[in-house]
Write a structure and sequence with these properties.
- By secondary structure, the chain is an alpha/beta fold.
- The protein has helices at about 1-15, 20-30, 70-80, 95-100, 115-130, 200-215, 235-260, 265-270, 285-295, and strands at about 35-40, 40-45, 50-55, 60-65, 85-90, 110-115, 140-145, 145-150, 155-160, 170-175, 180, 185-190, 220-225, 225, 235.
- It contains nine helices and 15 strands.
- The termini are far apart.
- Bound molecules: zinc ion (ZN) (2 copies).
- One zinc ion (ZN) binds near residues 50 and 184.
Protein backbone atom coordinates (compact mmCIF):
# COMPACT_ATOMS: atom_id res chain seq x y z
CA UNK A 1 0.00 0.00 0.00
CA UNK A 2 2.78 2.40 0.89
CA UNK A 3 4.49 1.77 -2.38
CA UNK A 4 1.27 2.35 -4.28
CA UNK A 5 0.65 5.62 -2.49
CA UNK A 6 4.17 6.67 -3.24
CA UNK A 7 3.73 5.88 -6.93
CA UNK A 8 0.44 7.76 -7.03
CA UNK A 9 1.73 10.88 -5.34
CA UNK A 10 4.95 10.96 -7.32
CA UNK A 11 2.99 10.63 -10.56
CA UNK A 12 0.58 13.35 -9.52
CA UNK A 13 3.35 15.69 -8.48
CA UNK A 14 5.00 15.15 -11.83
CA UNK A 15 2.65 17.84 -13.09
CA UNK A 16 0.51 17.78 -16.21
CA UNK A 17 -0.62 14.27 -16.94
CA UNK A 18 -0.38 13.23 -20.55
CA UNK A 19 -2.50 10.33 -21.73
CA UNK A 20 0.51 8.06 -21.37
CA UNK A 21 0.98 9.16 -17.79
CA UNK A 22 -2.67 8.58 -17.03
CA UNK A 23 -2.22 5.05 -18.31
CA UNK A 24 0.76 4.41 -16.07
CA UNK A 25 -1.13 5.98 -13.18
CA UNK A 26 -4.02 3.58 -13.77
CA UNK A 27 -1.49 0.79 -13.89
CA UNK A 28 0.17 1.85 -10.64
CA UNK A 29 -3.23 1.84 -8.95
CA UNK A 30 -4.00 -1.71 -10.00
CA UNK A 31 -3.53 -4.26 -7.24
CA UNK A 32 -0.23 -5.98 -8.02
CA UNK A 33 -0.49 -9.41 -9.55
CA UNK A 34 -2.38 -12.67 -9.28
CA UNK A 35 -0.57 -15.85 -8.19
CA UNK A 36 -3.20 -18.55 -8.03
CA UNK A 37 -2.94 -22.36 -7.62
CA UNK A 38 -5.38 -24.32 -9.81
CA UNK A 39 -4.82 -28.04 -9.07
CA UNK A 40 -2.01 -30.65 -8.68
CA UNK A 41 0.69 -28.06 -7.98
CA UNK A 42 -0.13 -26.17 -11.19
CA UNK A 43 -1.32 -22.60 -11.15
CA UNK A 44 -1.36 -19.27 -12.96
CA UNK A 45 0.36 -15.93 -12.60
CA UNK A 46 -1.07 -12.78 -14.17
CA UNK A 47 0.23 -9.24 -14.00
CA UNK A 48 0.87 -7.65 -17.39
CA UNK A 49 0.82 -9.49 -20.72
CA UNK A 50 -0.03 -13.09 -21.59
CA UNK A 51 -1.07 -15.32 -18.68
CA UNK A 52 1.68 -17.52 -17.18
CA UNK A 53 1.21 -21.12 -15.97
CA UNK A 54 3.55 -22.67 -13.39
CA UNK A 55 4.22 -26.08 -11.87
CA UNK A 56 5.99 -26.59 -8.54
CA UNK A 57 6.62 -30.14 -7.29
CA UNK A 58 9.18 -32.15 -5.31
CA UNK A 59 11.59 -32.37 -8.24
CA UNK A 60 11.51 -28.85 -9.52
CA UNK A 61 9.68 -26.01 -11.21
CA UNK A 62 8.39 -25.39 -14.73
CA UNK A 63 6.97 -22.14 -16.10
CA UNK A 64 4.98 -21.55 -19.30
CA UNK A 65 5.49 -18.03 -20.69
CA UNK A 66 7.17 -15.08 -19.04
CA UNK A 67 5.22 -11.81 -19.58
CA UNK A 68 7.67 -8.88 -19.16
CA UNK A 69 10.85 -8.59 -17.04
CA UNK A 70 9.27 -6.94 -13.97
CA UNK A 71 6.31 -9.37 -13.69
CA UNK A 72 8.71 -12.28 -14.34
CA UNK A 73 10.76 -11.17 -11.34
CA UNK A 74 7.61 -11.06 -9.19
CA UNK A 75 6.76 -14.58 -10.35
CA UNK A 76 10.26 -15.90 -9.64
CA UNK A 77 10.08 -14.42 -6.10
CA UNK A 78 6.72 -16.17 -5.53
CA UNK A 79 8.08 -19.48 -6.84
CA UNK A 80 11.10 -19.23 -4.53
CA UNK A 81 8.68 -18.92 -1.60
CA UNK A 82 7.07 -22.21 -2.70
CA UNK A 83 10.22 -24.26 -3.25
CA UNK A 84 14.01 -24.16 -3.19
CA UNK A 85 14.13 -26.53 -6.18
CA UNK A 86 15.55 -25.25 -9.46
CA UNK A 87 13.44 -23.89 -12.31
CA UNK A 88 14.14 -26.65 -14.80
CA UNK A 89 12.01 -25.51 -17.69
CA UNK A 90 10.75 -22.23 -19.05
CA UNK A 91 8.50 -22.98 -22.03
CA UNK A 92 7.25 -20.30 -24.46
CA UNK A 93 3.87 -20.86 -26.16
CA UNK A 94 5.00 -18.45 -28.94
CA UNK A 95 7.40 -15.57 -29.50
CA UNK A 96 5.35 -12.40 -28.85
CA UNK A 97 6.92 -9.90 -26.47
CA UNK A 98 4.09 -10.12 -23.93
CA UNK A 99 5.06 -13.81 -23.51
CA UNK A 100 8.87 -13.81 -23.99
CA UNK A 101 10.20 -10.37 -22.91
CA UNK A 102 10.34 -11.74 -19.37
CA UNK A 103 12.56 -14.67 -20.47
CA UNK A 104 15.58 -12.51 -19.70
CA UNK A 105 14.64 -12.48 -16.00
CA UNK A 106 15.19 -16.27 -16.03
CA UNK A 107 18.76 -15.95 -17.30
CA UNK A 108 21.00 -18.03 -15.03
CA UNK A 109 17.86 -19.19 -13.17
CA UNK A 110 15.99 -21.46 -15.59
CA UNK A 111 18.06 -24.46 -16.64
CA UNK A 112 16.40 -24.70 -20.05
CA UNK A 113 14.09 -22.72 -22.29
CA UNK A 114 11.90 -24.58 -24.80
CA UNK A 115 9.61 -23.53 -27.65
CA UNK A 116 8.47 -24.51 -31.12
CA UNK A 117 11.23 -23.97 -33.71
CA UNK A 118 9.16 -21.28 -35.47
CA UNK A 119 8.69 -19.43 -32.18
CA UNK A 120 12.47 -19.25 -31.75
CA UNK A 121 12.94 -18.09 -35.35
CA UNK A 122 10.23 -15.43 -34.89
CA UNK A 123 11.71 -14.27 -31.59
CA UNK A 124 15.10 -13.84 -33.28
CA UNK A 125 13.78 -12.03 -36.36
CA UNK A 126 11.61 -9.72 -34.23
CA UNK A 127 14.54 -8.91 -31.93
CA UNK A 128 16.70 -8.13 -34.98
CA UNK A 129 14.02 -5.74 -36.30
CA UNK A 130 13.54 -4.06 -32.93
CA UNK A 131 17.26 -4.05 -32.23
CA UNK A 132 16.84 -5.62 -28.79
CA UNK A 133 18.69 -8.90 -29.23
CA UNK A 134 20.56 -8.21 -25.96
CA UNK A 135 17.25 -8.23 -24.06
CA UNK A 136 16.31 -11.76 -25.19
CA UNK A 137 16.82 -15.15 -23.61
CA UNK A 138 16.32 -17.66 -26.41
CA UNK A 139 15.15 -21.26 -26.20
CA UNK A 140 17.94 -23.88 -26.14
CA UNK A 141 15.43 -26.67 -26.88
CA UNK A 142 13.04 -26.64 -29.83
CA UNK A 143 10.47 -29.01 -31.28
CA UNK A 144 8.41 -29.19 -34.45
CA UNK A 145 5.35 -31.43 -33.98
CA UNK A 146 5.36 -32.45 -30.33
CA UNK A 147 7.63 -32.62 -27.31
CA UNK A 148 7.47 -34.31 -23.92
CA UNK A 149 9.38 -33.90 -20.69
CA UNK A 150 8.94 -35.42 -17.24
CA UNK A 151 9.30 -33.37 -14.09
CA UNK A 152 8.80 -35.39 -10.88
CA UNK A 153 5.32 -36.89 -11.00
CA UNK A 154 4.15 -34.56 -13.78
CA UNK A 155 4.49 -35.01 -17.54
CA UNK A 156 4.59 -31.92 -19.71
CA UNK A 157 3.51 -32.42 -23.32
CA UNK A 158 3.68 -29.71 -26.00
CA UNK A 159 1.55 -29.97 -29.16
CA UNK A 160 1.92 -28.08 -32.43
CA UNK A 161 -0.90 -28.31 -35.00
CA UNK A 162 0.06 -25.65 -37.52
CA UNK A 163 -0.41 -21.93 -38.01
CA UNK A 164 -2.92 -19.97 -35.95
CA UNK A 165 -2.21 -16.74 -34.10
CA UNK A 166 1.36 -16.98 -35.56
CA UNK A 167 3.09 -19.91 -37.28
CA UNK A 168 4.73 -20.99 -34.01
CA UNK A 169 2.01 -21.48 -31.37
CA UNK A 170 1.93 -24.62 -29.29
CA UNK A 171 -0.35 -25.78 -26.51
CA UNK A 172 1.33 -27.07 -23.35
CA UNK A 173 -0.39 -29.89 -21.41
CA UNK A 174 0.41 -30.73 -17.79
CA UNK A 175 -0.92 -34.27 -18.17
CA UNK A 176 -1.48 -35.35 -14.56
CA UNK A 177 -3.03 -32.05 -13.55
CA UNK A 178 -4.86 -32.09 -16.92
CA UNK A 179 -4.25 -28.39 -17.38
CA UNK A 180 -3.45 -26.94 -20.82
CA UNK A 181 -1.90 -23.55 -21.56
CA UNK A 182 -3.35 -22.56 -24.95
CA UNK A 183 -1.12 -19.51 -25.38
CA UNK A 184 -2.74 -16.94 -27.66
CA UNK A 185 -4.61 -19.60 -29.64
CA UNK A 186 -7.46 -18.59 -27.35
CA UNK A 187 -8.37 -14.95 -26.72
CA UNK A 188 -11.32 -15.66 -24.46
CA UNK A 189 -14.25 -13.43 -25.55
CA UNK A 190 -11.77 -10.79 -26.71
CA UNK A 191 -10.93 -9.84 -30.32
CA UNK A 192 -7.65 -11.60 -31.08
CA UNK A 193 -4.41 -10.35 -32.57
CA UNK A 194 -3.73 -12.25 -35.81
CA UNK A 195 -0.05 -11.83 -36.64
CA UNK A 196 0.35 -12.34 -40.37
CA UNK A 197 3.90 -10.92 -40.23
CA UNK A 198 4.88 -14.21 -38.56
CA UNK A 199 2.67 -16.55 -40.53
CA UNK A 200 -0.74 -16.44 -38.84
CA UNK A 201 -3.72 -18.01 -40.62
CA UNK A 202 -7.38 -17.68 -39.64
CA UNK A 203 -8.27 -20.75 -41.75
CA UNK A 204 -5.61 -22.96 -40.16
CA UNK A 205 -6.47 -21.55 -36.71
CA UNK A 206 -9.89 -23.27 -36.93
CA UNK A 207 -8.16 -26.59 -37.64
CA UNK A 208 -5.79 -26.12 -34.68
CA UNK A 209 -8.73 -25.50 -32.32
CA UNK A 210 -10.51 -28.59 -33.65
CA UNK A 211 -7.42 -30.73 -33.03
CA UNK A 212 -7.14 -29.38 -29.49
CA UNK A 213 -10.76 -30.29 -28.77
CA UNK A 214 -10.07 -33.84 -29.98
CA UNK A 215 -6.86 -34.17 -27.96
CA UNK A 216 -8.12 -32.92 -24.59
CA UNK A 217 -11.28 -33.78 -22.63
CA UNK A 218 -14.19 -32.48 -20.58
CA UNK A 219 -12.10 -32.46 -17.40
CA UNK A 220 -9.26 -30.44 -18.94
CA UNK A 221 -8.78 -27.02 -17.42
CA UNK A 222 -7.48 -24.43 -19.90
CA UNK A 223 -5.32 -21.37 -19.34
CA UNK A 224 -5.75 -18.68 -22.01
CA UNK A 225 -3.21 -16.11 -23.16
CA UNK A 226 -5.77 -13.34 -22.88
CA UNK A 227 -9.39 -12.76 -21.88
CA UNK A 228 -11.66 -9.72 -21.99
CA UNK A 229 -12.62 -10.39 -18.37
CA UNK A 230 -9.41 -10.93 -16.34
CA UNK A 231 -11.30 -13.51 -14.26
CA UNK A 232 -11.78 -15.62 -17.40
CA UNK A 233 -8.16 -16.41 -18.26
CA UNK A 234 -9.04 -19.99 -17.32
CA UNK A 235 -11.90 -22.06 -18.70
CA UNK A 236 -13.10 -25.26 -20.31
CA UNK A 237 -13.50 -27.03 -23.65
CA UNK A 238 -16.65 -24.94 -24.25
CA UNK A 239 -14.42 -21.86 -24.48
CA UNK A 240 -12.29 -23.53 -27.19
CA UNK A 241 -15.49 -24.31 -29.11
CA UNK A 242 -16.56 -20.66 -28.70
CA UNK A 243 -13.17 -19.47 -30.02
CA UNK A 244 -13.53 -21.83 -33.01
CA UNK A 245 -17.00 -20.45 -33.64
CA UNK A 246 -15.60 -16.90 -33.54
CA UNK A 247 -12.97 -17.76 -36.17
CA UNK A 248 -15.55 -19.53 -38.36
CA UNK A 249 -18.03 -16.62 -38.22
CA UNK A 250 -15.16 -14.21 -39.03
CA UNK A 251 -14.13 -16.31 -42.05
CA UNK A 252 -17.75 -16.63 -43.30
CA UNK A 253 -18.36 -12.89 -42.96
CA UNK A 254 -15.19 -11.80 -44.72
CA UNK A 255 -15.43 -14.41 -47.49
CA UNK A 256 -19.08 -13.61 -48.22
CA UNK A 257 -18.40 -9.86 -48.17
CA UNK A 258 -15.55 -10.28 -50.68
CA UNK A 259 -17.81 -12.42 -52.86
CA UNK A 260 -20.53 -9.75 -52.68
CA UNK A 261 -18.06 -7.24 -54.11
CA UNK A 262 -17.51 -5.20 -50.95
CA UNK A 263 -14.35 -3.11 -50.84
CA UNK A 264 -11.63 -3.56 -48.25
CA UNK A 265 -12.66 -0.31 -46.55
CA UNK A 266 -16.28 -1.40 -46.38
CA UNK A 267 -15.32 -4.73 -44.83
CA UNK A 268 -12.94 -3.16 -42.30
CA UNK A 269 -15.65 -0.66 -41.28
CA UNK A 270 -17.76 -3.44 -39.75
CA UNK A 271 -18.33 -2.96 -36.02
CA UNK A 272 -19.64 -6.48 -35.47
CA UNK A 273 -19.51 -9.91 -37.10
CA UNK A 274 -22.81 -11.69 -37.76
CA UNK A 275 -23.25 -14.55 -35.30
CA UNK A 276 -20.58 -13.23 -32.91
CA UNK A 277 -22.17 -11.85 -29.75
CA UNK A 278 -19.73 -12.44 -26.92
CA UNK A 279 -16.49 -11.01 -28.31
CA UNK A 280 -15.46 -7.60 -27.00
CA UNK A 281 -12.56 -5.18 -26.99
CA UNK A 282 -11.28 -2.67 -29.49
CA UNK A 283 -9.47 -4.98 -31.88
CA UNK A 284 -12.14 -6.16 -34.33
CA UNK A 285 -10.23 -4.51 -37.20
CA UNK A 286 -7.20 -6.74 -36.61
CA UNK A 287 -9.31 -9.84 -37.25
CA UNK A 288 -11.05 -8.32 -40.29
CA UNK A 289 -7.79 -7.11 -41.82
CA UNK A 290 -6.05 -10.46 -41.35
CA UNK A 291 -8.96 -12.41 -42.83
CA UNK A 292 -9.32 -9.97 -45.73
CA UNK A 293 -5.63 -10.26 -46.57
CA UNK A 294 -5.65 -14.04 -46.23
CA UNK A 295 -8.51 -14.41 -48.70
CA UNK A 296 -7.42 -11.82 -51.25
CA UNK A 297 -3.62 -12.12 -51.46
ZN1 LIG B 1 -0.31 -12.32 -25.99
ZN1 LIG C 1 0.61 -13.42 -29.09
Amino acid sequence: MQRRQFLTSSLLSAGALSLANQKSLAWALQPGYKFKPLRNNVGIFAEQGGTIAWLVNKEGIAVVDAEFPAPAEHLIAELKKQSDKPIQWLINTHHHGDHTSGNISFKGIAQHVASHANSLANQKSTAAKQNNDDKQLYPDTTFTTEWKVKLGDERIHAYYWGAGHTNGDSMIHFENANIVHTGDLVFNRRYPFVDRTTGASVQSWVNVLQKAQKQFNKDTLFVFGHAFDPEKVTGSMADLAAMQNYMERLIDFVKSSIKAGKSKDEILAATSIPGVTEWQGDGIKRSLTAAYEEFTM
